[in-house]
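Quality-control log, excerpt.
Job 1 of 2 completed; input and output follow.
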Amino acid sequence: MKARVIMGALIIGGLVLTVGGSLALAGKPAQTALYPDLRTVVPQQLNLVNEQQNQFLRFSNGIANTGAGPWAVAPDPPPAEATTVTAAVQEFRTSNAKYRCGEQPQQVTECYEVVDTHLAGVYEYHPAHHHWHIGDIALYEVRKGSPTGPIVNENSIKTTFCLIDWYRLDGNSSTSERTFFDCFAIQGISSGWVDQYHQATVGQQVDLTDVPDGNDYYLVSTANYARTFVETNYTNNTAWVKFTLTSDSNGNRKVTVIGRSPCVMGSDLYGENAPNR
């Protein structure tokens, strides 16, 4: 699938998305697409771990969708027909319903239509997690002096994810009523939901082995850092925590959180009391 841009309009498969406008299909009434807005939950559970004479800062990370529509990404071709890599296609839907119109069970009345699609990177099989991940999801950085200060020890790590609905953002509540729950099919985060990766998960770490003690380090996490995926606002994707790195008289080092980024949308984006997987 190829896309082209003409006079400020993105044209994909016969569909037209005018910048700042709505989606329309030639010859058919325009349908409104609901777009996601990706936010990073403030990183939690920072913990310094010693592994084979190296020191790693491990942490939990969450990505929330505060937009009106779902962040939905489909593999093309499906993983069953792929080997280790397949295309990731972002879908723009008319609602947050679980089932596509015409495919929903007979007793279900609410459904969604796919108004348009956007080629947005690749799915890759993650051998450590034994399922498929999507690229360009998150960027982890350790910076000094400020959230935009110099990167410390080349700690700038791009991370892939399997995207699912893990808990509701409102109230940090866990529920089984999820739209996205499968790492082998269409992945995504529904409006008002959070995908979370626990600190014990492979890849949830940055290397602090040679980083000197200090009181002005920042762990910065940014969702959709490459702007690979379409969303309503790219300027609110980053969250950070400020921490100190200290050593006691025996040389044992410790990380202490002393600050965090503000949460304009409310305290739920702080991630406090959120369930951890």
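Job 2 of 2 completed; input and output follow.
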Amino acid sequence: MLSYQQAFYSLCKQLGKIYSDTEAAAIAHEIMEFVTGKGRLQRLVEKDNHLDERQQSLYDNAIVRLLNGEPLQYITGVQWFFGKPFQVNTSVLIPRPETEELVQWVIDEWQDKNDLTILDIGTGSGCIPISLKLKLPAASIAAIDVSKSALTVALQNAQQHQAEIFFLEMDFLKEDQWEKLGQFDIIVSNPPYIPEQELDTLERNVRDFEPEIALFVPDTDALLFYRHIARFAKEHLSPDGAVYCELHRDYAQATQAMFEAMSYKATLRKDMHGNDRMLRAERQFL
């Protein structure tokens, strides 16, 4: 069997075919920790530092999947978000750092308020509502998704982090379902927003593995979910509440204009890369 060091360097060499040396090394360290259950330093000082039969099987399987373009997070089953590990699989999107910025925006503006009611639309792994609950423990939070398998993952994450979230399976685009939901101080969403025509422009690991239902909207209606969110909030957002959405940078201005045309005051915010990627909207009463 390979030693830990031999396995690490072999993995780096193979990953170097599709990643930079720095990326390959970072991924290799993650895989070695996943395979062995031991951190970098522990692997170095371990006396019997060879892969056993079970570890070798995990290692070989991981190499095949990585070279096939599968995201590291689906192989290890974990993605860190807002300082916590979240279970992920191909039923849910892999949480991104940009979404952490959206969550932080909500927390910064509402952390001094009590008895909040919050709705997350299209919850996926549950990373948004769970992170909000951990930082705003007095809030009552509901989360919906059209995917039953995604909600299974979200529920597992909520149980892991001891976050009380009310999950509901719902197709948000069906307006006759909205009556099941009440009124909320905060409505937050990272909805599907990529036009289908952009499929071929995406990285292979996104295009081939992440769930299409959570990514794409029709080419003819890029603002599909935002329009429904704006209409929903007309009746379900409390008078002093706010809507927070993650955006497609190319449609940020159009999304803002749509909300404003529907009598909202809408503000854009840039992400860490300087792109308009988030929106805050509040109702205006004439």
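Post-run check on job 2. The longest helix spans residues 21-36.
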